[in-house]
Amino acid sequence: MKPMWMVRAEVGGRLFEEFKTRSLVAIGWVDLGDLGRLKSREDFQREVGRALPTMRPGQVAASAGQTFRFVREIKIGDRILTYNPPERIYLVGTIIGDHEYDPAGLPEDPNIRRVEWQGNVARDQLSVATRNSLGSISTLFLVSAEAAIEIEAVLKGALAPAATQAEQQESVDVDDLLRNMQNRALEFVKDKVSELDWQEMQEVVAGLLRAMGYKTRISPSGPDRGKDIVASPDGFGFQSPRIVVEVKHRTSSSMGAHEIRSFLGGRHADDKGLYVSTGGFSKDARYEAERARIPLTLMDLDDLVRAILEHYEEMDADTQRLIPLRKVYWPG
Is 279 found in the same domain as 153? Predict the structure, then answer.
């Protein structure tokens, strides 16, 4: 059986009709020019790195791999898919030509392969396993042999196989998958927060407090007598509650009891305390906070990131720019 490849028609299937009516598939990477002049995978990687210097190494490798496959690995006679998200249909065909460079045809996607289209397969006709395997966001990827066999069968009029016990279990386990993705996302956000410098971290904490409804004053650089931020309803600290905040951005060292006692030493009786330490707190520090004479909350990196995620949409644009996040929707 010939390999089957997916080539996406840009974001949202924007070029689907162009692919269909012109009998082709195409990819962009316009800055690389004519990909046909490149031979080895190393050539592709070197050219991507040269033409797109702001790309991270992982992005360079991924782009080089996809462009190499489009030009050198896909062969005449291989099967090809593209997808139309609005109509939820896959267009199925066969590659009938080698790589061509045609900037006049599709200026944004000038590297093309000619295709003979044979028919459509509705996404809803496919099994859960096959639909899941086609969910990659990559521009180009090799379709699994099992999915390709099913697509060919459905194209010829066969019904998709009934859901297997494994697929039914997969549906049951969707909540576990969501929890796994949430945990991974939490770690990625923690990485992003850890990369901030101390001044940016102070701005983030102040932005979080503003998102929670307070007005903030940030202490100028230099000795702050145990306070980096003062948050209160009026912004001056006259109205209660007056929250005094200390921010320590040292991911490699935790705060001990001495630092907590030092922070508490300058507080007024009506103050509320918030101590943020991305390096965490020792057991003694937490004990010191529990017996403090004023209400004191200790916030480590996990606590900070969870609070950021909870209040992110209420944060002002300047704070969001320090930690740019993207919302992801998940079926309920």
Answer: no
